[in-house]
Write a structure and sequence with these properties.
This protein is mostly beta strands. It has a single domain, classed as Sandwich (Jelly Rolls), CATH 2.60.120.10.
């Protein structure tokens, strides 16, 4: 089943820490909330430095869509999300601190509840 999602009809939700907003594109099952979804797809802006919300038992993938980049500090590892390296995968229970490079970023997010669903995002190049 295909469904057209009118972006203009969606409402951004501020993050708990005020460091950005998330616009939910789709979530399952219907009526699920932020703590009991099976999967969730959203667009989020990272506007300020700060911690990510944790989602225990959830696998996360972020793909940078626009912006200068952001440093993601996992404590024992640091990853720079940038136009040249736009994708990062991590566990939702990981403690992550973001440091924005330049202007805010816009990121495509996929979250799946471990043990119920799995996801994979692969970059591709459009030619023409």
């Amino acid at each position: 089943m295909n469904r057209l999602i009118q972006y203009a009809s969606l409402r951004p939700t501020p993050w708990k820490n005020g460091g950005g907003v998330t616009t939910e594109l789709a979530m399952s099952p219907p009526g699920a909330g932020i703590d009991d979804f099976d999967w969730r797809v959203s667009l989020a802006s990272i506007a300020e430095d700060g911690p990510f919300s944790q989602f225990p038992g959830v696998d996360r993938t972020l793909v940078m869509v626009a912006g200068d980049g952001v440093l993601l500090d996992f404590g024992d590892e640091r990853v720079v999300l940038s136009p040249s390296e736009p994708l990062v995968e991590f566990a939702g229970e990981d403690a992550v601190h973001a440091t924005v490079h330049g202007q805010s970023t816009l990121d495509f997010n996929v979250l799946t509840r471990r043990g119920r669903y799995r996801h994979r995002i692969e970059p591709f190049v459009v030619c023409g």
